[in-house]
Write a structure and sequence with these properties.
- By secondary structure, the protein is α/β, with parallel strands linked by helices.
- The chain is built from 3 helices and 5 strands, in the order E-H-E-E-E-H-H-E.
- The two termini are about 20 Å apart.
- The model has no long low-confidence stretch (mean pLDDT about 85).
Length: about 120
């Protein structure tokens, strides 16, 4: 799974730029099916992570995110994707196949500004 994060998210992850994933490291990056944009927004007094699939623009929102949630962000996003797809009545086998094909979470900053405005 390739997570392209805004600066706000990357600052909370405390990842050095040297540790960012290269685009060649993520299988399926070219078509974007396993790539997710991740942004942190304030909703009143709570914070939410807004994740959006690069290819389908399918949104997944993690509401009420706390500082401790950033230590395992990849796992939290994976769990949120699973929960959201289950609520959409997607077959369990299809969800498992998608998440298995995603692989481990790789992080990088957003490559273009156009997704920040959507």
């Amino acid at each position: 799974m390739y997570l392209q994060c805004t600066k706000k998210v990357l600052d909370r992850l405390s990842i050095d730029k040297a540790d960012y994933a290269d685009t060649g490291e993520c299988e399926g990056f070219e078509n974007g099916f396993y790539t997710w944009y991740v942004n942190l927004v304030d909703l009143g007094r709570k914070k939410a992570l807004v994740c959006m699939n690069r290819k389908t623009l399918y949104p997944v929102i993690l509401y009420g995110v706390k500082a401790k949630d950033f230590s395992g962000l990849g796992d939290r996003v994976r769990e949120a994707i699973r929960a959201t797809l289950e609520r959409e009545c997607i077959k369990e086998a299809i969800i498992d196949e998608y998440l298995d094909n995603c692989g481990e979470a790789l992080y990088q900053s957003l490559r273009t500004r156009n997704m920040r405005t959507r």
